[in-house]
Amino acid sequence: MQNMTLEIENLVTGFKTSDGAFNAVDGVDFKIEEGKVLGIVGESGCGKSITSLSIMGLVPKPNGFISSGKILFEGQDLLKLSEEEMQKIRGNRIAMIFQEPMTALNPVFKIGFQIAEILETHKNMKRSECKPISIELLKKVGLPRPEKVVEEYPHQLSGGMRQRVMIAMALSCNPKLLIADEPTTALDVTVQAQVLELMKDLKAEFQTSILFITHDLGVIAEMADNVLVMYAGKVMEETDCETLFDEPLHPYTNALLNSRPERIKPGEKPVCIPGMVPSPFDMPRGCAFAPRCARAMDICKEKKPALKAISSNHKVRCWQYYSEEEQCQNI
Amino acid sequence: MYKYIIRRLLLMIPVLVGVSIIIFSLIHLAPGDPYSAMIDPNTPTEEIENMLQNIGYYDPLPVKYTKWASRALTGDLGYSIRYQEPVVDIITRRIGNTLLLSVLSLTLSVVIAVPLGVISATKQYSKFDYIATIFAFIGMSLPAFFFALLMIKFLAFDLKLFPISGMQTIGSGYTGIRLLWDVVHHMMLPVIVLSFLQMASFMRYSRSSVLEVIKQDYIRTARAKGLSEKLVVYRHALRNALIPVITLLSSSLGFILSGAILTETVFSWPGMGTLIYQSILNRDYPLVIASTMLLSICVLLANLLADILYAVADPRIKYN
């Protein structure tokens, strides 16, 4: 049995809005082993980012709130910690890289200062001691001329360079868990590949677990050990990376795989999933994917299926994988 | 940067020339003249006409302007018709009184209002926020003269906490510390009125600015770094939120020398505000022009200062 870095049980994160309340993350369970990468895929608005913000304790207040569940990080429930205790973990043992490198750095502070801040907060270093370490970190993430970059402001760097700075910041305290929320989405393809390579190296070096959130299946194939497919705040399918690509079970996973641009032959129209992600205020009574599902049955529209274990490392939430008897019992 | 400042200063010259022409024309377009009130109504009309002819009252406007401008260039801003004294002397005597009032009230309002605005923003929709908003609303909508009169009625007349008007107790002959206290005592009410009214806009401005900044991605990054909420707000958010507040500050700074006309008048404060008000009533041409020119120079300098402050506060702004 491997050491678990992160175990999430039945996480429910909701939002209050003027139109009513809804659950953006609706009962999610998963585990990440030490030194492993868990990928979460899904369309925009399916609860991927809110899951990661829940772990960080950064769900936007006052409208967002975690209503139930457990987030066990190295055995400790993060939801039971006070704000001060969470501050000691954030940026230190759990670090996060965000999607938008262009806006994620504070425009009025020098790069060196923004890295030094973390070292000051978590390692009790003096400002003067931080500079050589910041330069070292920037060198490690492959930034050219790091001794100059520490004296520069974010607007003087390109998107790829800024994302490297973000990664350097995230790694400054050797975190046990790194949450990467679409870290390559805003970057062009060559820079994307470099950044992914960099994260892989760092994982190997520090045994860091990574929670990798993306809607790019190519990136998942490249990075992830295990994959979670999310839709409308729920886990639809959970398995290891190879199985996901070789024998996807859930119709949504299949639809996602079929709509990859590299599968389209010249002259063919791209395959897309008809319809839209349902509005959180207007969730279907049955399976959330049923209105868009090509294989939907009557039961799919009536009742929500539960996540079912097909094998030891493969779970799926779909009525097709229930026998007729099981389906009948549920009605 | 220095080159930029020098270029901006040089650019001020044509602007000031334009401003002086406009002021000069406008004040002469106003009906009435400064002399009628000074002359015995029984004087024969021809004599008055003769006199006005002699002092150049009937000169065409361009001639008058050229005469004024050539003297102004040598530092001679003319003689006040009303006070029979050089304009420069009157202004230098008054300007200190106005600066005392305006610098103090501006500093007070910024020092109090910006933190209040920040707290209001970080605790949006809390009781504190609502109370602050109500007060800001009052401060924004109350006219200065009316608020000043209310304060005089309640604090000065009913409660007798402060003197009603003026800058010193007349005929007291105080010196040293007692004089200082006397002036401070007289100053309090106008300072309260002025800072309360200015606080309102500074508070609302910094509140909305912080609310805007706090939604930004880099604030989430700062939190994700594990910084305390205090550092997130007062280091990461405030520094960015202050940039738009500079605009408001510079527009207030522009009027620091001209004084608050209404407030000074209500309190009979012997500053630039009352001076400008009275000189316009008296058609005291040299005094009006000199004080309005001073005001324009001040506004232009404040704008330049704002642009320099932008570059200091925001590294993305660079001038070449």
From TrEMBL, chain A:
Keyword entries, A-Z: ATP-binding, Cell inner membrane, Cell membrane, Membrane, Nucleotide-binding, Translocase, Transport
Family the UniProt entry places it in: Belongs to the ABC transporter superfamily.
InterPro entries cross-referenced by the UniProt entry: AAA+_ATPase (IPR003593), ABC_Ni/Peptide_Import (IPR050388), ABC_transporter-like_ATP-bd (IPR003439), ABC_transporter-like_CS (IPR017871), Oligopep_ABC_C (IPR013563), P-loop_NTPase (IPR027417)
Record flagged with keyword Nucleus: no
Gene3D superfamilies in the record: P-loop containing nucleotide triphosphate hydrolases
A Pfam family matched in the record: ABC_tran
Keyword Acetylation assigned: no
Protein name (database record): ABC transporter ATP-binding protein
Entry's localization field: Cell membrane
GO molecular function, one term: ATP binding
Membrane-topology descriptor: Peripheral membrane protein
Main location: membrane
ABC transporter domain: residues covered: 6-257
PROSITE patterns in the cross-refs: ABC_TRANSPORTER_1, ABC_TRANSPORTER_2
PANTHER family in alphabetical order: ATPASE AAA-TYPE CORE DOMAIN-CONTAINING PROTEIN, OLIGOPEPTIDE TRANSPORT ATP-BINDING PROTEIN APPD
UniProtKB/TrEMBL annotation, chain B:
InterPro entries per record: BPD_transp_1_N (IPR045621), MetI-like (IPR000515), MetI-like_sf (IPR035906)
Record's keyword annotation contains Membrane: yes
CDD domains in alphabetical order: TM_PBP2 (cd06261)
Membrane topology designation: Multi-pass membrane protein
Keyword annotations: Cell membrane, Membrane, Transmembrane, Transmembrane helix, Transport
The organism of origin for this protein: Fusibacter ferrireducens
Transmembrane segments: 9-30, 99-118, 130-156, 176-197, 241-267, 287-313
Domain ABC transmembrane type-1: 95-306
Localization per Swiss-Prot or TrEMBL: Cell membrane
Protein name: ABC transporter permease
Family: Belongs to the binding-protein-dependent transport system permease family.
Main location: membrane
